[in-house]
Amino acid sequence: MSIPVGHYQYDRIDRDFLQARIAEFEGQVQRRLDGTLSEDEFKPLRLMNGLYLQLHAYMLRVAIPYGILDSRQLRKLGEIARRYDRDYGHFTTRQNIQFNWIRLEDTPAILRELAEVDMHAIQTSGNCIRNVTADEYAGAAADELVDPRVHAEILRQWSTLHPEFTFLPRKFKIAISGSPNDRVAARFHDIGILARPGEDGAPVFRIFVGGGLGRTPVIGQELFDSVREEHLLATLEAILRVYNAHGRRDNIYKARIKILVQAIGVEAYREAVEAELAQMDLERYRLTPEAVAAIQSRFAVPQLEAPADADAVLAQQRRDDPLFDRWVRSNTHVHRDPGHIIATISLKPAGGIPGDATSAQIARLADLADAYSFGEIRITHLQNVVLGHVRKDRLRDLWMGLAEVGLAEANIGLIGDIVACPGLDYCALANARSIPIAQKLGARFADTALQAEIGALRINISGCINACGHHHAGHIGLLGVDKRGEEFFQLTVGGRAENGAAIGTILGAALPEDETVDAIARLVDCYLGRRESGETFLDTLTRLGHEPFREAAYETV
Amino acid sequence: MKRPVRLEPGQKLVLTANRLLDGRTVWWCADGTWDLHIGRAALLDADEAEAVLARVVAEAQRDGVVGVYDTAVQAAVPPEPVTVREKIRAHGPTVHPEFAVETEQ
Ligand code: HEM
Ligand code: SF4
């Protein structure tokens, strides 16, 4: 078998481990079914294997390390959706996939099928280091300084089953990017890492700690500006040790690293990390150039060859076909190779469910990845899919193939590209439904010409304060609240996860569900009526302040 | 500690849980079985619910259910849960009408 282009090639040790782990879980399921294990005893065991109990069924969360899959893996996910679920899967903001209708009895068989393609559900739940997320354009974008996948893989290996860090005070999320344009929400993670080349050419890492959303949204603070590659693992190990020793375990709402960093201050945290580093065996954690090269060699390099006129062919096709041109404008990004382009495939059809894909769509995506992008697929933290290396002269063929399965929506980064968590339609913790509001907004702004006219505008919806839909980071954020069994939505504006990260400001009292979509339409009208030439929603908001938007949202006719 | 149950006029309590094998939402029936359809659920008065709940919880493992609790319904035919959450548990996700519990056997 050839080495995959986008992700690391597993070896026998990884595979034996997965099989042993599945056999162990199979035994646990058996003991749960025969009553040897009580639900209280079993719950933490199933969660360690990614299995949740939701409102209507079990939900299985499958890890997609740094969001990258090969077509064989994607095809397998489609098969699992068809055989074991109700023919669809849900891609999440953590670059994972969730299946919503899983039977406990089937879970060991599903895990075996996943293991056939080197996939699993380990560390997708529980108070451990979760799946590390990375820039969805890694290794492809023209603006990238360092390809973060090799270090993401190093972090995956370091954090997987790390004996000291399987029972942290709380879950722990790490994101890494190597671009000056933050596409991973680095400052909303427990640890956010931005890589760039150092003076000697080897990468150095800027490290933020203590970011997070949820009940207490906090923007991560810079802990170190330039950690050298050889000290990356030692530094992360020290950060985790300080958290593990001092993070609160008495109160689940105060257990994340963000609360510890707030409580003692980032300077004190830095001193504690430096003290830890001073007494650690640095040699043990040293990341040598040889070790990095060994990991690098397990990633295949795509052979980027394109005809000399690829760019001209694309330009001509764009002139000939305005619909295609609109899609190219919103759904592509500049590749490092002039003959190639990055295509983002929207999983946000107007009126559809953000992040859901049917097994037929999943299978087609796998075929298109084989045909157009070296069999490689990325899942984005905004619930979309990326083909990283498409030849420019073949982009239109890809677009037509996507259209056949309803995946050619031209709305990336626009108002239709809504992020929404599962909400009360599935989630046992929810206060309100996220998906129906997303569907209504999607239908209201279905016209992609209107979306292009409105310009960059992100809407994020969470069904409760846990903030899985990143509502604090949305340019417009919606948070579902429960008022005596009824659904209400609190509106925030001005959040952003990109460079210049900010937490949205609450506009006012929560609105009843059936008034929410109109209120957002009025916010958008307010912006369209008052923007100056070239301004985005955030620009106009910054210039005018919140007051006009508050008035628009609460205006009653 | 169990919260005191306060029912409005016209309301009763039903017992609900998830099936251990497949996680599906089920409702407790007067004959001691569990059913996917809330229409078959036993309607309980507030003063009897506590004792029935305790008995049913004790038998949850034998009956193959997890997380038994009570919830208020309008005592119509079929009974309709009071909260949005329990309505969605009773009828299925609102975003997939084709999965409506009513159409299942
Ligand atoms: C449906 C089952 C789910 C459950 C039970 C669940 C539960 C939770 C909880 C309890 C938290 C808060 C953790 C804390 O602040 O300590 C959380 C955070 C989060 N969840 Fe979920 N979640 C679910 C689904 C999802 C989905 C589908 C996504 C992606 C669309 C997601 C993405 C996130 C993210 C990104 C956070 C981090 C927010 C932060 O930084 O605090 N979750 N989740
Ligand atoms: S934000 Fe709340 S409702 Fe939405 S998935 Fe997370 S826990 Fe569930």
Automatic annotation (TrEMBL), chain A:
Record-annotated Nitrite/sulphite reductase 4Fe-4S domain positions: 125-278, 418-553
Matches recorded under Gene3D superfamilies: 3.90.480.20, Sulfite Reductase Hemoprotein, domain 1
A Pfam family that the UniProt record links to this protein: NIR_SIR_ferr
Annotated keywords: 4Fe-4S, Heme, Iron, Iron-sulfur, Metal-binding, Oxidoreductase
All residue ranges annotated as the Nitrite/Sulfite reductase ferredoxin-like domain in the record: 58-117, 353-404
Record carries keyword Oxidoreductase: yes
PANTHER family: BLR3264 PROTEIN (PTHR32439:SF9), FERREDOXIN--NITRITE REDUCTASE, CHLOROPLASTIC (PTHR32439)
Name of the protein described by the UniProt record: Nitrite/sulfite reductase
TrEMBL record, chain B:
Top-level taxonomic group: Bacteria
Protein name: DUF2849 domain-containing protein
Organism: Gluconobacter aidae
